[in-house]
Specification:
With 439 residues, this protein is α/β, with parallel strands linked by helices. 44% of the residues lie in helices and 19% in strands. Helix 9 packs antiparallel against helix 11. It has two domains: 261 residues, Rossmann fold, CATH 3.40.50; 123 residues, no CATH class. Helix 2 links the parallel strand 1 and strand 2. The protein is globular and about 70 Å long. The chain is built from 15 helices and 14 strands.
Length: 439
C-alpha cells in the first residue's frame, strides 16, 4: 500500500516556503512603513518642560512676567537636538500688555505650546486646569515625554511659592489630613487661584515619583523651581525618589525669574551638556541677571539622606549640651519668611565658630564635630551655588530648614510631622523640645 508521503511532504514544504516568503514581505513592508514614525520619535538630548502657573486672580503681574519668560525661551526656541515645551495656565486678569501678546486674550484656561524660534505653536487647548493638582503636573510630564521624548528632562515650575508650608488644597496646612496626596484622582509651589489649590511638597514628590515609574524607572534629571522660598532640606529629602537634581532658592525670587534665554542658549551650544553643567549655568545666569540680594543653588537629591543623618547627629549633641547649658542659643544666623526658615549651613558655621552657648558643655568638641559633618554633607550634595548682596556677605549655604517660633510651630506641627524629613529624622523632635518643652 502506498501512502504518498513524499508527495505530501513536498507540498507541505512548498506551502511553508510560500507562507514564510509572504510573512517576510509583510514584515519588511511594515518596517519600511514604520521607519518615518520611528525616526520622528528619535530621542533628543534634552526637553525643557515649562509648567507655568499664572492663575493669579489678584493681579496680572505674574502672568505678564511669564509671558516675557516664554518670549525669552523663544529667542532660540527648540532645535534639532532639543525641544522646549510649556504648559501655561492663565488667570482671569488682563492688562494692555497681555492683550497685545495673546491672539485670544480673553481665553483664561490652560494651553500647551511648542516653543520654536520667535514662535509659540499651540499643541493643545485644555480649558480650565487645576495646576495645583498633582495629576495635572503628571499629565503634563507624560505629554512632554510622549510628544517630545528626550534623554534628559528639565522641569521648570514657574509660580508663586511659600516654602515648605502650603496654604491651600488637599494635604495643606488647612487640611485635617496634612500630607495626604490625591493621585491620580485628584503650597509648596504652583498656586492656582481659580481652583484654590497648590502643589504641596507631598504632592510634588508623588508626582515626580509617578513620572519616574512612567519613564521606565528613570528619575527626572532636573527640576528648577522659579518660585520663592523653595530650597529646603525638607524639599530635597521629599523629592529624592523622583528627581536627581533640585534647583531652587531659599529666598524670595524677583519677578523676572530665571534667565531663560541663557538656559536654552547653553543647551543649543552643547546639546549633550551634562546636568551638573546645566545646573551651574541656571544658577549663575540668574544671579548675573538679578538686581541684588538673591541666592540660587543646585543640589543632588542623592545626598539628602547624608544631610538628614548629619542633622540628626547634631541634634543629639545639642540635646546633650543643653543638659548643662540650658536651651541652646545660636547667634549670627540667616532667616527667611518672617523667621520660619533658617539657612542650615549658617547654623553649622555658627556652632563651628563658637557663636553659641555650647562652648562650656562637656561635649563642646562633639558639637563642633557634628556641625562640621553637617556642613560637609551639605557641600557634598551641592552642585552649584551663587548669591549676591547680603547673602554673599553672609556666605549662606543655600538650603533652609524649618525652625519657626513657638506659636507658628504649634500651629503647623501636624503638617511638618507629615514631611518625609521629619518622619525619618530627629529635627521635629528637637523642635518639640526646643519650642514646646516636650520631652
Amino acid at each position: 500500500m502506498m501512502f504518498g508521503v513524499p508527495q505530501n511532504r513536498q507540498s507541505t514544504e512548498a506551502i511553508g516556503l510560500i507562507s514564510m516568503t509572504r510573512i517576510s514581505a509583510i514584515l519588511l513592508l511594515s518596517m519600511l512603513a514604520a521607519a518615518p514614525a520611528l525616526q520622528a520619535q528619535t530621542l533628543k538630548e534634552w526637553t525643557i518642560v515649562g509648567y507655568f502657573v499664572g492663575d493669579d486672580n489678584k493681579s496680572p503681574i505674574l502672568e505678564e512676567s511669564q509671558v516675557k519668560n516664554i518670549d525669552e525661551l523663544s529667542q532660540r526656541g527648540s532645535g534639532d537636538a532639543y525641544d522646549v515645551v510649556v504648559q501655561v495656565d492663565r488667570s482671569n486678569k488682563i492688562n494692555d500688555y497681555l492683550r497685545s501678546r495673546y491672539s485670544d486674550p480673553d481665553y483664561s484656561g490652560a494651553k500647551r505650546y511648542f516653543i520654536q524660534p520667535d514662535k509659540w505653536t499651540v499643541e493643545a487647548k485644555l480649558g480650565e486646569v487645576n495646576m495645583g493638582d498633582p495629576a495635572a503636573l503628571l499629565d503634563c510630564l507624560k505629554w512632554a515625554a510622549k510628544s517630545h521624548p528626550a534623554k534628559h528632562y528639565l522641569l521648570v515650575i514657574n509660580s508663586h511659592g511659600s516654602g515648605t508650608l502650603s496654604w491651600r488644597g488637599p494635604g495643606s496646612t488647612a487640611d485635617s489630613q496634612p500630607g495626604r496626596v490625591l493621585l491620580p484622582v485628584s503650597s509648596y509651589v504652583a498656586y492656582d487661584d481659580t481652583d484654590n489649590d497648590c502643589l504641596t511638597i507631598f504632592e510634588l514628590g508623588k508626582a515626580l515619583e509617578a513620572f519616574a515609574a512612567f519613564n521606565g524607572g528613570k528619575k527626572l534629571d532636573m527640576m528648577a523651581l522659579d518660585a520663592c522660598l523653595a530650597a529646603s532640606i525638607e524639599a530635597l529629602f521629599q523629592f529624592r525618589d523622583g528627581v536627581d537634581t533640585l534647583v531652587a532658592s531659599e529666598s524670595l525670587v524677583p519677578g523676572h525669574g530665571f534667565a531663560y534665554s541663557s538656559i536654552v542658549s547653553a543647551i543649543a551650544a552643547n546639546p549633550a551638556i551634562a546636568p551638573d553643567d546645566l545646573a551651574g549655568i541656571i544658577t549663575k545666569s540668574f544671579i548675573d541677571r538679578a538686581d541684588s540680594g538673591n541666592v540660587l543653588g543646585a543640589y543632588r537629591t542623592a545626598g539628602a539622606e547624608d544631610v538628614r543623618a548629619a542633622c540628626d547627629g547634631l541634634v543629639r549633641e545639642l540635646r546633650t549640651a543643653a543638659k548643662e547649658t540650658g536651651k541652646v542659643s545660636i547667634q549670627g544666623l540667616t532667616a527667611f519668611a518672617e523667621d520660619k526658615y533658617w539657612d542650615l549651613e549658617r547654623i553649622a558655621d555658627a556652632l563651628i565658630a563658637g557663636r553659641s552657648n555650647t562652648g562650656g558643655a562637656a561635649n563642646a568638641s562633639q558639637v563642633v564635630a557634628a556641625a562640621q559633618k553637617l556642613k560637609s554633607a551639605i557641600r557634598a550634595c551641592r552642585v552649584s551655588l551663587w548669591y549676591s548682596g547680603s547673602f554673599a556677605e553672609q556666605k549662606v549655604g543655600g538650603l533652609s530648614i524649618f525652625w519657626p517660633g513657638k506659636d507658628d510651630y504649634a500651629r503647623y506641627r501636624n503638617f511638618y510631622k507629615a514631611t518625609a524629613f521629619a518622619a525619618a529624622g530627629l529635627w521635629d523632635d528637637y523642635l518639640d523640645w526646643y519650642e514646646l518643652g516636650m520631652q
